[in-house]
Amino acid sequence: MGKLVDGVWHDVWYETKENNGKFVREDAGFRNWIENRPDAQFKPESGRYHLYVSLACPWAHRTLIFRELKQLTSHIDITVVCPDMLNEGWQMGLPEPLFGHTRLHQIYTQAKPDYTGRVTVPVLWDKKTESIVSNESSEIIRMFNTAFNDLTGNHDDYYPAVLHSEIDKWNDFIYPNINNGVYRCGFATTQSAYEEAYESLFNALDEVESHLDNNRYLVGNQITEADWRLFTTLVRFDAVYVGHFKCNKKRILDYPNIQNYLKELYQVEGVKQTVDFYHIKRHYYFSHTQINPTQVVPVGPELDLDSVHNRVQKFSR
Length: 317
Ligand SMILES: N[C@@H](CCC(=O)N[C@@H](CS)C(=O)NCC(=O)O)C(=O)O
Known about the structure:
Layout: E1 3-5, E2 8-10, E3 49-53, H1 58-69, E4 77-80, H2 104-111, E5 117-118, E6 123-126, E7 131-134, H3 137-146, H4 149-152, H5 164-179, H6 181-186, H7 191-214, H8 225-244, H9 256-266, H10 277-287, H11 311-314
Parallel strand pairs: 3-4
Antiparallel strand pairs: 1-2, 1-5, 3-6, 6-7
The structure holds glutathione.
């Protein structure tokens, strides 16, 4: 684990001292947009973009789900990094296809030789301008949602205009308390920082559980971006966050509505093939040696996400 400073790789763990033991996530450094406009710098073109992802990472996972759902798999190719993120950060199993690089930080310095910042997945690369379009998953999924519609003919909309404010409201609640909340528990280096994160995480999950008792999805009668953003944390929760990040008040299995909702999302066509529990468990337990110095990866739990869920029946009345 480390970061680039003026284009040079430094092997350092997260700095929490300045924030009383609290983990604070750094903002992404590349924030361009692919737009379907004649004068856009980054236009939606088949084969032009390459996505670097980790199958372990919940943020990268969002982009893989949107790539599947929006039928972009034949238009945007991918490199999957190894699950182990150690002294050199994210590494490729085989040299990646564009430059033959073996470290993700080389992709960052390829784009910007003096880059300073963390080297994170996902990364959306533009082969034409040889630069990084974006390394911010929330913005990459917005691009995937609409920018390529004319190319793919897929007009499914996970961020419909009429639902913007409701979706934004859930995202603003779920990101700090749940998506980043599990990391705020796991990466806390003081008891009080951990307990504060733990409390807000489980209060938020309680609220989601009660919302899902009366609503099939977070917003409206359809699956939206807000559901997919929540999904990638939920699907990792019992396998990793309960143990490794000490998020152990309850498992998702103990929340009947959330568990059934999780199964429904998992069973949406195209989604389960984006979920890889080997990468997920191996990454967290093997890479975070400050948290798990033995690097032993747990065998369990046995998860059953393929069995029938009750969401259709519950909301058919
Ligand atoms: N804001 C980014 C966050 C991405 C992120 O933090 N990814 C993690 C993997 S789960 C990472 O690559 N961390 C490496 C590091 O922090 O050094 C996004 O949502 O795209």
